[in-house]
Amino acid sequence: MKNIRCQLFKGIKDEELKQLYNCLRARQAEFKGGEELYSFGSGKTVLGVITQGKVVVKKIDRNGNVNILDHIQKNGVISNAFAFSQTDGNFVSAYAVENTKVVFFDYSNVFKRCQKACEYHSQFVENLFDIVIEKSKTLSQRVEILSNKTIREKILSYLSFAVKNTGSTEITLPMSLTSFAEFLSVDRSAMMRELKKLSVGGIIKTDKRIITVLKREYI
Amino acid sequence: MKNIRCQLFKGIKDEELKQLYNCLRARQAEFKGGEELYSFGSGKTVLGVITQGKVVVKKIDRNGNVNILDHIQKNGVISNAFAFSQTDGNFVSAYAVENTKVVFFDYSNVFKRCQKACEYHSQFVENLFDIVIEKSKTLSQRVEILSNKTIREKILSYLSFAVKNTGSTEITLPMSLTSFAEFLSVDRSAMMRELKKLSVGGIIKTDKRIITVLKREYI
DNA sequence: AAAATATTGTTGCAAAAACCACAAAGGAAC
DNA sequence: GTTCCTTTGTGGTTTTTGCAACAATATTTT
Q1: How confident is the model at residue A43 (pLDDT cuts 50, 70, 90)?
Q2: In A, which residues are within 8 Å of B143 by CB distance?
Q3: How confident is the model over A18-27, as a mean pLDDT?
């Protein structure tokens, strides 16, 4: 298996990485676009790195409503260890958005220090820590966005974070408007209506997936 | 300062703990009920353990809407390192619900290993890791709850997690109904109405803050 | 290039939720 | 015990949202 260079393995040398692969029982899997990542919804705890492609985590409730819980890009980490549990009435699953390669690790071995108490194992834990913190921050942003009552406020809250995170007032949505509505957990047509209102009000300018914030004092 | 026995210091001996306090520049602070925890909303990154009392993290937006972002109990960890950032239009603050004692640490020193590369420091990082994972899980549950469209679904989703987490179908809300509405980010009167509908429908039974789930197949 | 599929854009209508206002009950403080 | 304040409980009204349906573009697949 080719060595993966990503945040999870930052500061770990190639030869150490090989040993770590062994230690964590790394194995690669490939998924076609639209295909469901097995083992995510299963009871087993998984930890994986997306080395190619994109993954979306969705929840489908008993009424068939689809909610997007997470988007994971290349070099992103996917795990049910620290996010999104399955409840009786819901199915949480991860899907490859395009052709995707994932390297899975045995999560149970992460904290089992090998006999040699290797230093790079500590480094690995610290890297994983950073990633979980990052995910945690993203989740709290998500909570803040969703805790707005109206669609308008949700959109503006999203834009507020996006402007803050990117430093630009021209935001290109990393997903389709359909998915964006699912991300905000609102009806798509109602969202479109609200986007139009915001445009007419001169607060934003929209062109497909590109939203430009014109009046920063509103976000 | 008295030694704190909590998740954050699990597996660390008393004498090591003393050294760790020094290493992380631990300092205690007390807050009266209703008082705002300084330093949380400030730019500085804080890490604290609630050793007594209760804390609630709130967001107040430009329109004066209050949203509860988090509840932190005794032995819980409070930090802006991995959750809830301030944006231009919003104020995020933490308030003591009752008389509360907090021990603050210098977050910047957490990953600076002391010269002796003490083993307990690793243990500390691992403990903090567990806490962040826990918080992350709580946050994703929150996202799942909030990503329901209707108040009814939000309530049922909350109950679903509560039943799953506690193992009992009799749920005592850890907050007032007023706060519960803020937690679900819905209007209180609308929520009360929905609770009544669920009661009349025989799905739940309510008595103030005690909600008993009668038909598990609905949650 | 044509066909199939997904995305964007828009509307009328019904349902749900927010907002507002008020009364009663419960607790805390004096 | 009385006062004050918070919480609980309820109802009417307005606004917002979700739903369904459809057309027009894009995009992908064959």
Answers
A1: low
A2: 69, 139, 142-143, 146
A3: 84
